[in-house]
Amino acid sequence: MTERSMAPRAARILSWALPLGLTIIAALLRIVGVGGPATLLFDETYYVKDAWTLWNLGYEGTWGDDPNAAFEAGDVNGYTDTGSFVAHPPLGKWIIGVGMALFGTGPFGWRIATALVGTLLVPLLYVVAKRLTGSLWLATVAGALIAIDPLAVAMSRIALLDSSLALFVLLAFWFVLLDRTGTVARIRASTDAIAGPTIWRRPWILAAGAALGLASAVKWSGLYALAVLGIAIVVMDAIDRRRAGVGRWVEAAIGRQGPVSFVLLVPPALAVYLAAWTGWFATDGGYDRDSSSNPFTALWNYHRTVLSFHETVTSGHTYASPAAEWIPMLNPTLMQRTTEDDGGVGLMAALPNPVLWWAAVVAVVWVAVRIFIALANKRPISGTDGFLLAGICATYAPWLLLPSRTMFTFYAITVLPFAILAVVVLAARLRARDDPERAAVARAATSTALIAILLVGLFFLPFGTGWVEPEWLYKAHLWLPSWYL
Predict the structure, then answer these.
(1) DSSP letter for each residue of 396-462
(2) For residue 329, what are the contacts with CB-CB under 8 A and spacing of at least 6?
(3) What span, in angstroms and rounded, lies between the C-alpha atoms of 431 and 438?
(4) Which pLDDT band, with edges at 50, 70 and 90, does 61 fall under?
(5) Which of 20, 45, 163, 341 is deepest in the core (most CB within 10 A)?
(6) Is 194 helix (H, G, I), strand (E, B) or coil?
(7) Could you tell me which of 199, 190, 196, 202 has the C-alpha nearest to residue 241?
(8) Residue 254: is its pLDDT beyond 60?
């Protein structure tokens, strides 16, 4: 379904009604019942209590021994003003803290902000997919896939940091997409046939830098996206100049536009990142705050300590799963399990729709092959292919370089939007046949496949919500032996 094949009024209505409907569905799946169970799940034990002390102290305070039971019972003041060492920047916990400040310190309050963040991923992915495919149908499928995906739902119903990271990373990529429209037109309109223009007015790159600063202020893995997008911007500028007939397109993209793009991207990211530490700067009690009279030196000392910690995170964990295992999803992280007297089982796990996930592997390999063929034949790579490859490189590839580090499958929530985009872009390419008969067959085949993937997502949805199922139905989900959670 494309806008060209529809009446203009119908296209306008659907262009806002479809993402609105998907967002409402996503919100219901993420918010209804989010206050249960009334216990701290998995790493909520760290982030929720840190969020509460951030909100009250401006930095993460220290809690006494075994504070969870009292906290869950409503005694949320068992902290001291001694700064606590924490492994992640403060923004994700500030987001959780806003929910607690507005809706109380119970489980609904500590989870609602993450639920809303996870909901926002849906319309954002819709507009990105719409831009890449030009199809209302495929954009709707993309939004629906993430709206009901069990990994996306689970990560929205628990107060962790990774949904916020995923939102800000995807937002940065969206801003880069918006930048390309105006930038390509300016390069083509330039009268400088040797190097092309040096473009300073690129507000969407500034916005992308700010979004990446937000991502990095949630988790340092946002820096991977900053590095990859920075490189991708230079590469895309080079390709655009080559297509426009610029003579020295490589030198111009790297030597002239590259430094400008760096200035537009990196300083805003740094400024936003530092702004997230305002509470730490404005108070005296934060960890390492007194390590230097210069607050920036003190923050640098703190960051060196955190970096040393991350370099040595290799402790064993029941649900530890190196990145190579994420492709088959061999050891999904269990967040919650409920077993009832009649044998019913309910669990919430970091397990994506498996058919979607495995289809995405095929789609990403297809993108990589297309890029390899283009490079081998000295042709410019497709901007869409480059976008998808950059997304995977920013969110998944870095973890492959750290095989000994302790990591978990829920980190893959940042990969999921790009996995979905790869699938719908592959579908769009298969449907774009010149021959009418082949095009009709391709449309029917891809539509059937996408509907089947959506149905599998619905089947696995209870693993995202924690809904209790009869034992036989629960076991029907256990496609791999390691999924016996």
Answers:
(1) THHHHT-TTS---GGGGGGTHHHHHHHHHHHHHHHH--SSHHHHHHHHHHHHHHHHHHHHHHHHHTH
(2) 351, 352, 354, 357, 409, 480, 483
(3) 8
(4) very high
(5) 163
(6) coil
(7) 196
(8) yes
The structure tokens listed for 22 are 């998907």
Q: HSE-up of 425 (CA within 13 Å, CB side)?
A: 27
Spatial neighbors of 9 by CB under 8 A, at least 6 apart, are: none
Q: Is the pLDDT of residue 1 over 60?
A: no
Q: What does the buried/exposed string (b/e) look like for 466-482 if buried means 16 or more CB atoms within 10 Å of the residue's CB? A: bebbeeeebeebeeeee
72, pLDDT greater than 70: yes
Structure tokens at 422: 């790869």
Nearest by Cα to 443 from 133, 149, 15:
133
In the predicted structure, residue 444 carries a pLDDT above the cut 90: yes
| pTM for the predicted model, two decimal places | 0.95
Supply the pLDDT for residue 4. Answer: 57
Q: What is the mean pLDDT of residues 194-203?
A: 87
pLDDT mean over 290-295 = 94
How far apart (Å, rounded) are the C-alpha atoms in residues 278 and 274?
Answer: 7
What per-residue confidence (pLDDT) applies to 127?
A: 98
CB-CB contact of 283 with 53 (8 Å): no
The maximal CA–CA distance of the chain, rounded, in angstroms, is 77
Q: What is the pLDDT of residues 236-249, one digit of tens each?
A: 999 888 888 888 88
Q: CB under 8 Å to 460, separation ≥6 — which residues? A: 150, 351, 353, 354, 477
Which residue pairs from 34-40 have beta carbons closer than 8 angstroms and sit at least 24 positions apart in sequence? 34/107, 34/108, 34/111, 34/112, 34/115, 34/157, 35/106, 35/107, 35/108, 35/111, 36/107, 37/107, 37/336, 37/338, 38/72, 38/106, 38/107, 39/68, 39/72, 39/107, 40/68, 40/71, 40/72
CB-CB contact of 22 with 30 (8 Å):
no
Could you read off the pLDDT of 126-158 as tens digits, one per residue? Answer: 999 999 999 999 999 999 999 999 999 999 999
> Three-state DSSP class for 315?
coil
Cis status, amide bond into 37, omega within 30 of 0: yes
How far is the CA of 256 from the CAs of 195, 200, 446, in angstroms? 8, 11, 43
Beta bridge partners of 80: 62
